[in-house]
């Protein structure tokens, strides 16, 4: 029998992205259903939701990049201190 591997718990950013992806999937399905029922969709609502989702994605990417840069700087500073 296979033993359970130690899994790293999901971080906050991962949880936010999963929730955002689920919301976008449900929103897309709701807009398809609305189109079939009403033969039209609320274009302004779709534009605003997609825009907010894009901004959220960009901010998440910026946070991740800044964390990586900060950790890289700390690592390089620690390496320089080791050589002294």
What's the arrangement of secondary structure elements?
Elements: H1 12-38, H2 43-83
Helix pairs in contact: 1-2
Shape: elongated
Summed up, the helix count is: 2
First-residue to last-residue Cα separation: 50 Å
Order of helix and strand elements from N to C terminus: HH
Radius of gyration: 21 Å
Strand content: under 5%
- What is the helical fraction, as a range of percent? over 70%
Low-confidence stretches: none
Structure explained in plain terms:
Helix content is 81%, strand content 0%. The chain has two helices and no strands. Helix 1 (12-38) runs antiparallel to helix 2. It starts with 11 loop residues before the first helix and ends with a helix. 0% of the residues are buried. The model has no long low-confidence stretch (mean pLDDT 87).
List keywords for this structure.
81% helix, elongated, 84 residues, mainly alpha
In short:
The protein has 84 residues and is mainly alpha-helical. The protein has 2 helices and no strands.
């Amino acid at each position: 029998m296979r033993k359970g591997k130690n899994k790293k718990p999901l971080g906050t950013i991962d949880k936010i992205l999963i929730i955002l992806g689920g919301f976008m999937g449900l929103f897309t399905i709701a807009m398809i259903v609305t189109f079939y029922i009403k033969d039209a969709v609320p274009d302004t609502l779709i534009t605003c939701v997609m825009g907010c989702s894009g901004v959220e994605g960009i901010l998440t990417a910026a946070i991740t990049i800044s964390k990586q840069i900060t950790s890289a700087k700390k690592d390089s500073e620690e390496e320089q201190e080791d050589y002294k």
